[in-house]
Specification:
Blueprint: E1 2-8, H1 14-21, E2 22-30, E3 37-43, E4 48-52, H2 64-75, E5 80-86, H3 90-102, E6 107-112, H4 114-119, E7 122-124, H5 126-133, E8 137-139, H6 148-158, H7 171-183, H8 191-200, H9 203-209, H10 215-233, H11 238-257, E9 258-260, H12 268-276, H13 282-300, H14 302-327, H15 332-350, H16 353-369, H17 371-385, H18 393-401, H19 403-409, H20 416-425, H21 432-445, H22 450-475, H23 496-515, H24 517-530, H25 544-556, H26 564-572, H27 578-588, H28 595-600, H29 606-618, H30 623-633, H31 636-664
Parallel strand pairs: 1-4, 1-5, 5-6, 6-8
Antiparallel strand pairs: 2-3, 3-4, 7-9
Helix pairs in contact: 2-9, 3-11, 7-8, 7-10, 13-16, 13-22, 14-15, 14-16, 15-24, 15-27, 16-18, 16-21, 16-23, 18-19, 19-30, 20-22, 21-29, 23-24, 24-27, 25-26, 26-27, 29-31, 30-31
Bound molecules: guanosine-5'-diphosphate and magnesium ion (MG).
């Protein structure tokens, strides 16, 4: 079977092309050693498999996920490489293309975004460019699947062609390359590529060749070459020189094969950016965007759907199930476990599926439309003020969906201090799990202001994160700051197909969690509520759960919700924040006339409810998040720190809000 490796710069349409060329997944998982997504799909014509590699600008890795591609090229030998190139950004994209051509395996270039290039008056002489790069080039528009047939045919007819592409890097470097290659044993493949990558400073390659070559000798060769190059060309670093030579080659390609009909028209993207990233308007526009997000989630679409689901699940289904259990003569214990434990616990959380998918849909939209990098740009001013940069806001936005992938996205941040701070602070971003708690409480206490109340919680999370970033960066985590470099890709209206696919990719984690964590948590909590020091089937105020909750309650009294139910819910919420809702459903075992909402009004005032939501927002990251913090920081100390500071911060802020609220006269 043909293996095709898909390589290209970020945002060139790799995922779109992957979806267009493959009909089914063979494998989805992670690259070994790092949690970067690995996807392998079967081609629509069934003749081969396509491997999706992380997007990157150069093979020399800057961040962990970029190393994946180099390692892949060292360890595996794909039949053919498919290089996705953005036709509208040809000059920048070709740097990676040249490195791929040097690898020495057959290459087919998918020249994507032809529609965009055309709209910008960029005219590419494809057969000329193909001659210059000595490789087949197929123009495509991945988004509308145009050219995909031709691309597959080209793969088929070129997978065995010989690659002879070579740039001459000048006598000094060519001599060094030859010396390097002469020392390598016969059986080692891709010699010239290895040599060039070695001189460019590609770390995985340097490690790889150190198995064959003496490291002192390598160092000497490197130093001598560097010196000789500096004397001959005045360029003091080898990698700069290599880049310079490639740029020269690319310039000549651009001159020979590309014509741009200059237009003075300001593009739509530029016009929009003038407004969206405007110094004064940027933040208000972002807030407005978030406000509409919550309007959609809570008032217009999500909650109405959720109510219907609730009706179906807790009314109709529960009745039917309890009838069924009666008919089969199930024991009282089993009946209670299923109805009061599992259905109440898991069902109580599943009713939030509509809100959570709505939110994920909007986050996918932010990612795919290009708005994400604008938000990073707008936030850069604030982030800089606290010792971070705008790029660190991207993991945080991802954290709005779920903190776990947010923290993993911090890998793209190169500077260690900024990375650590991002990992520590992303848990303060209000994730979708917390949404289920808000949904319950705002639906009960703040019916006419749901969106604005939820928005205030999200903003609070961000503000607290920024304040703590400042604090931590002057006390704990000192280090250099990096430059802000985020590119602004042109705006695109995402396609429904990709949007729904990535929404599902994110949302299915929630559904899976309902079947695992929340299920287990519900059974466990129900058992704690069903049993007590004096035996089984006790009334709830004789139960273990009551005993545990009562121990915590006095501590919570000063912040407004010193009842044992809240204490028990917070404790179990550490498993996953949704379990807070499960626990409440189980504890209050609300009669259906009153409903859970009716029950909680007896235990919370609106101000106490707000304080409770703030506490839920800020207190300990959930179990899965703690796990990923441990993994990413590789430090037990920082992991404990992340739990400790969060608890303390949550307590202080809830206390202040509650006390000030009381003082002003809220209740
Ligand atoms: P990746 O980051 O390389 O995986 O790129 P994606 O596949 O996520 O694409 C980035 C954006 O470009 C998405 O909004 C796509 O819908 C859009 N896109 C992909 N291919 C094309 C194309 O050929 N033409 C246009 N106009 N947009 C495209
Ligand atoms: Mg992608």
């Amino acid at each position: 079977m043909t293996t095709i490796a898909l390589i290209g710069n970020p945002n060139t349409g790799k995922t779109s092309l992957f979806n267009a060329l493959t009909s089914s997944y063979e494998y989805i998982g992670n690259w070994s050693g790092v949690t970067v997504e690995k996807k392998i799909g079967i081609l629509t014509n069934k003749k081969g498999e396509l491997i999706d590699l992380p997007g990157l600008y150069s093979l020399s890795p800057l961040s962990k996920d970029e190393g994946v591609t180099s390692k892949y090229l060292l360890e595996e030998t794909p039949s053919i490489l498919m290089n996705v190139v953005d036709a509208s950004q040809l000059e920048r994209n070709l740097h990676l293309t040249l490195q791929i051509l040097e690898y020495g395996r057959p290459v087919v270039i998918a020249l994507n975004m032809m529609d965009v290039a055309k709209a910008r008056g960029i005219d590419i002489d494809i057969s000329r460019l193909s001659q210059l790069l000595e490789s087949p080039i197929v123009p495509v528009v991945a988004r509308s699947e145009k050219g995909c047939e031709e691309l597959l045919q080209s793969v088929d007819s070129n997978k065995e062609s010989d690659m002879t592409f070579k740039i001459h890097y000048g006598d000094v470097l060519e001599k060094a390359i030859n010396q390097f290659n002469d020392k390598l044993p016969m059986e080692v493949e891709h010699k010239r590529w290895l040599a060039l990558q070695f001189f460019e400073g590609n770390q995985p390659v340097q490690e790889y060749v150190s198995a064959y070559l003496d490291s002192e000798w390598l160092q000497k060769l490197y130093d001598e070459t560097k010196r000789a190059l500096a004397i001959e060309t005045g360029i003091d670093e080898i990698h700069k020189f290599i880049r310079h030579q490639r740029s020269k080659f690319i310039d000549s390609c651009m001159n020979l094969a590309v014509q741009v009909k200059i237009s003075n028209k300001v593009t739509f993207s530029e016009k929009l950016d003038g407004v969206v990233t405007n110094k004064f308007l940027g933040i208000p526009i972002f807030l407005l965007f978030m406000y509409f997000t919550f309007k959609l989630t809570f008032e217009w679409v999500g909650t109405p759907l959720s109510d219907q689901l609730d009706h179906l699940l807790n009314g109709f289904l529960t009745d039917k199930l309890s009838m069924l259990l009666d008919t089969v003569g199930a024991a009282e214990f089993i009946k209670a476990l299923i109805l009061k434990g599992i259905i109440a616990g898991v069902g109580g959380v599943l009713v939030f599926v509509p809100q959570i998918f709505m939110l994920f849909l909007i986050i996918s939209f932010i990612e795919d439309s290009g708005y994400m990098s604008r938000i990073a740009t707008v936030m850069d001013r604030f982030m800089e003020g606290v010792g971070l940069n705008g790029k660190t806001f991207i993991p945080m936005i991802i954290g709005f969906g779920c903190n776990v992938p947010g923290i993993m996205a911090a890998r793209t941040i190169e500077q260690p201090k900024e990375r650590l701070l991002t990992i520590l602070l992303t848990p303060l971003m209000s994730c979708s799990a917390r949404l289920s708690v808000y949904s319950l409480f705002v639906g009960t206490f703040f019916t006419s202001h749901q969106a604005i109340i939820v928005l205030s919680l999200y903003v609070l999370g961000v503000v607290v994160a920024l304040a703590l970033a400042k604090l931590f960066s002057i006390t704990l985590a000192k280090g250099e700051e990096s430059m802000f470099v985020v590119e602004l890709p042109p705006y695109r209206f995402p396609q429904w197909k990709t949007l729904s696919r990535s929404t599902w990719e994110k949302g299915k984690g929630f559904v899976r969690k309902a079947g695992t964590f929340i299920f287990g948590g519900s059974v466990f909590i129900w058992l704690l509520s069903y049993t007590g020091p004096h035996g089984w089937n006790v009334s709830i105020d004789q139960s273990f759960l009551h005993a545990i909750g009562s121990m915590i309650a006095p501590i919570l009294h000063p912040i407004g919700f010193g009842n044992w139910q809240a204490g028990a819910a917070l404790l179990t919420g550490f498993l996953a924040k949704e379990v807070v809702v499960s626990t409440m459903n189980i504890i209050y075992a609300a009669p259906s006339e009153v409903g859970l909402q009716g029950m909680i009004t007896q235990f919370f005032s609106p101000l106490q409810a707000y304080s409770f939501m703030v506490f839920i927002l800020l207190y300990v990251p959930c179990l899965a998040t703690v796990g990923v913090i441990r993994k990413e920081t590789a430090s037990a100390r920082w992991t404990w720190f992340s739990v400790g500071y969060a608890l303390l911060t949550a307590y202080i802020i809830s206390f202040l809000l509650y006390r000030i609220g009381l003082f002003i006269g809220f209740h």
